[in-house]
TrEMBL record:
Signal sequence extent: none
InterPro entries: At3g26010-like, Beta-prop_At3g26010-like, F-box-assoc_interact_dom, F-box-like_dom_sf
Lineage: Eukaryota, Viridiplantae, Streptophyta, Embryophyta, Tracheophyta
Domain F-box protein At3g26010-like beta-propeller: 114-385
SUPFAM superfamilies xrefs: F-box domain
A matching Pfam family: b-prop_At3g26010-like
Protein's recorded name: F-box associated interaction domain, F-box-like domain superfamily
Source species of the chain: Helianthus annuus
């Protein structure tokens, strides 16, 4: 029978119970009206009651009903992580994770990742947020040796611990990509990959060569593999940068990982499906950039975006990468003097670019050190204002905090079970 959002599912009895229960006497329609009122964590537990429950909760009719009841529709939030410093030395034990949001669905201790640090296995852990994609979050236990990574769903509070990577280097660029509908063994499941990128410099006669070492974890195989990439450019000494503490994680766009601070020539891209690496040149208006907090990468509707502030003409610009990587399209350009502000204490010359808004094509987020606040700028009406966050967000930090856009998918992404394999 074809599933429909307008017609209930045919009633049937549980095939796992020898005696009738109250649930057996209920129609599927009544069960749906009851179950859609549950929070997600107990709802997931209901799948283990019987085959009937598991089947019912997996239908598109139930999923659509649940989404409509709870108003889950691509809600957006910003995770941010501050790093208090003393004499320019970062103390990992002082790092804190918090979240700014507009939708009340995020108003839960779970979205602060506290369920990880309060669990029996990770008690008293100091966690670092690293990346997110399609509803799952990658984080690590900062003080553990060897390095321990976790992949979790903050909404359902499910998590899995990854085996340790081949090397114990912590100063690496991170990439995380999740496919919530991966076909594996004739069944649809969630799969993800974690990519660690280390810049390895080797001295050769009369030149300095830079090689990227990539360590890739695949949830399907349950193991880490290693790859190496060396540029074919004649200017190897300028291609790869040393590790940048503020921008270690990649922006995911169409399943590809993009780093905006890894290459001096442009945006470094890695395709996890075929292992291909390439560099996308920056827009022509952006000359050899100074890697400050005046640029950022983002994604909107499957398109890669690049925002930049030019010291030459005091203009903010936002570009979008054309289909197939065929150059950049300039979307917005605004002079510093044109930026009207509705926020007190804003010093427009001391703002750090954070991220383009993933759900609003005209909005770019900033962090203003003078007011210690997240602010948003609407390129359309040229107004700098406070975001419509439910609670006040004030960030006091010596260094610009790290920010991670988080888009809640319409339906929660399951955390896959990992069968850990022996490493070669």
């Amino acid at each position: 029978m074809t599933e429909s959002a307008t017609s209930p599912i045919k009633n049937h009895k549980s095939d796992e119970s020898t005696s009738q229960s109250l649930f057996d006497k209920l129609t599927d329609e009544l069960l749906i009206k009851t179950l859609i009122r549950l929070p997600l964590k107990p709802l997931n537990l209901c799948k283990s009651i019987s085959t009937r429950f598991r089947s019912l909760l997996s239908t598109s009719y139930f999923i659509n009903s649940y989404i409509n009841h709870h108003h889950f529709n691509n809600s957006f939030a910003l995770y941010y992580q501050t790093k208090p410093t003393f004499h320019n030395i970062i103390d990992p034990s002082l790092m804190t994770i918090d979240i700014a949001f507009e939708s009340p669905v995020f108003d839960s201790p779970g979205f602060s990742l506290s369920f990880l640090s309060n669990s029996d296995q990770q008690k008293q852990e100091t966690l670092q947020y690293l990346a997110s994609n399609n509803g799952l979050v990658l984080c690590c236990a900062v003080l553990r040796r060897p390095i321990v990574y976790f992949v979790c769903n903050p909404l359902t509070k499910q998590f899995v611990t990854l085996p340790p990577p081949p090397s114990n280097v912590k100063t690496v660029y991170i990439g995380f990509v999740c496919d919530p509908r991966c076909l594996c063994d004739d069944e649809f499941t969630t799969s993800f990959k974690v990519v660690r990128v280390e810049v390895v410099r080797c001295e050769f006669p009369r030149q300095l060569s830079a090689t990227l070492k990539l360590e890739i974890f695949c949830s399907v195989s349950g193991r880490w593999t290693e790859e190496y990439f060396m540029s074919s450019s004649g200017s190897d000494h300028e291609l790869f940068h040393a590790w940048n503490y503020r921008c270690p994680s990649a922006v995911v766009c169409n399943g590809l990982l993009h780093w905006g601070t890894l290459s001096n020539f442009g945006v470094f891209t890695y395709d996890t499906s075929n292992g291909e690496c390439r560099t996308i040149e920056l827009p022509q208006e952006v000359r050899k950039p100074v890697w400050t907090f005046k640029h950022c990468l983002g994604e909107y509707s499957g398109r890669l975006r690049y925002a930049n502030f030019s010291w030459d003409d005091s203009n903010y610009r936002v570009w979008e990468l054309k289909d197939g990587g065929g150059g950049w399209l300039l979307l917005h350009k605004v002079h510093l003097d044109e930026m009207k502000s509705t926020v007190e204490g804003i010093n427009k010359e001391c703002m750090a670019l954070l991220s383009p808004h993933p759900l609003n094509p005209d909005v770019v987020f900033f962090w203003c050190r003078s007011s210690c606040r997240i602010v948003e700028y609407d390129m359309g009406n040229k107004v700098l204002q406070l975001p419509r966050f439910i609670r006040d967000v004030k960030i006091i930090s010596h260094l610009s905090p790290m920010f991670f856009p988080f888009v809640l998918p319409p339906w929660p992404t399951a955390v896959p079970v990992i069968q850990q394999q022996e490493q070669n």
